[in-house]
Design brief:
396 residues; 23 helices; elongated; mainly alpha; single chain
Length: 396
């Protein structure tokens, strides 16, 4: 029997979510008691929980003869199959394990989740109900019930489950977000805002509620309020993505200087994220600071070759007042690369036609522009028509 200090240490490590420590503790204990099947099964479960398949599969193979009929072993075969995207095999194993031990909560939860994912809602319902009878506080089962109700075309049932869930556990975050989405679909955005604000009063550190609130203000065309929430989130949590979203919110409210500060902070926090650099480059280009813009586009492109970066970078060459033949050629190369990455990037195609036109290659420009002539209801339509007529005149 494992020592008391080992059991307490293992429980504490799992409660903290320190699975690496938990795995180490079990491995150390198994050196003393290598025949402890229950402990070996727990080690396999932890390996699978962190996605470390190879040692888990090796242990499962080693235990096959000894534990083939053990409910936990059969369920772990299901978990292994599930992690390898073998859903039918996983469901079969979970059903076998539950036939051996109906009280195996995590196996039933995984089976219900797989059935919901497969759209087999009627089959999932009994498992969800039994989960909640066994463990009323197992809230993921409630979310699966909500998903099942929505798929069955019963939004009011889904809404009822959400409201009951909030009454039972007001500190949960996801129910507020989902219920707010229901209210928005019902064109009751103000009520959705009230709900999210109420959730934040109850749980001030529920940052996903702030994210939902900021998105909702944006949808409702209130850029000032959205910016305020993004600013609060940046101060409270301060992730790179928070400052990135703050910068975008600043642009929506027409404040490029604030966006410049936010994107700069986002880049400092995560230098390998190309998006702050790209947005900084866009601000510099639109404010005619071409040298800084080109530098930032180039740095962004060194992280990822994205068609948006390449298109913006090419525009720097096209829009320079002192642009020369070499600049137009460089723009052409960047735009061709952008179109190779994304052939449907219509703005890049229009800019390519402009670059070719600037080099007096009018037939080539017409050919580049041709796929855009059939576009309807496009914001580019007026520019395409004007350039097309200009090129036709130049070719005469």
């Amino acid at each position: 029997m494992p020592e008391v200090h080992f059991v307490e240490g293992l429980r504490e490590a799992i409660q903290k979510g320190d699975f690496a420590q938990a795995i180490g503790l079990i491995q150390q204990q198994l050196r003393k008691t290598p025949e402890d099947t229950e402990l070996s099964l727990e080690l396999i479960r932890l390996f699978l929980r962190v996605g470390d398949l190879e040692p888990a599969k090796a242990l499962l193979a080693r235990l096959h003869t000894k534990a083939a009929d053990h409910p936990q072993y059969v369920a772990l075969l299901g978990m292994s199959a599930q992690l390898q995207d073998q859903a039918p095999e996983a469901m079969l194993r979970y059903e076998e394990a539950l036939a051996l031990q109906p009280s195996l909560l995590w196996a039933r939860a995984n089976l219900a989740s797989l059935l919901v994912e497969a759209g087999r809602y009627d089959e999932a319902q009994p498992h969800l109900q039994q989960l909640l009878e066994q463990e009323p506080s197992y809230y993921p089962a409630r979310f699966h019930q909500i998903r099942s109700a929505l798929a069955a075309g019963e939004p009011q049932e889904a809404r009822k489950i959400l409201i009951d869930l909030l009454r039972q556990q007001p500190l949960l975050v996801q129910p507020y977000v989902l219920l707010a989405e229901f209210l928005v679909r019902e064109q009751n955005g103000e009520k959705a805002i009230e709900l999210l604000l109420m959730g934040l009063q109850i749980n001030p550190l529920a940052h996903p509620l702030r994210e939902s609130l900021a998105r909702l203000y944006t949808v409702m065309s209130d850029p000032e309020a959205a910016f305020g929430i993004r600013l609060e989130l940046s101060r409270l949590r301060g992730l790179s993505t928070d400052f990135l979203e703050l910068g975008l919110a600043a642009l929506r409210k027409g404040a490029p200087p604030l966006a410049l500060v936010a994107f700069t902070k986002a880049h400092k926090l995560d230098p390998q994220d190309w998006r702050p650099l790209y947005n900084l480059a866009e601000i510099f280009r639109t404010s005619d600071r071409m040298g800084q813009a080109m530098s930032h586009y180039e740095r962004a492109a060194s992280i990822v070759r994205d068609e948006r970066i390449l298109n913006g970078w090419a525009l720097c060459f096209l829009e320079r007042e002192d642009a020369k033949e070499a600049d137009f050629q460089q723009a052409e190369r960047l735009l061709e690369e952008a179109l190779a990455l994304s052939p449907q990037r219509y703005e890049a195609r229009l800019n390519l036609a402009l670059a070719l036109s600037q080099q007096k290659r009018y037939p080539d420009a017409l050919k580049a522009l041709e796929p855009l002539l059939s576009l309807e209801d496009s914001p580019l339509q007026e520019r395409v028509t004007a350039l097309h007529q200009e090129l036709l005149d130049l070719c005469k």
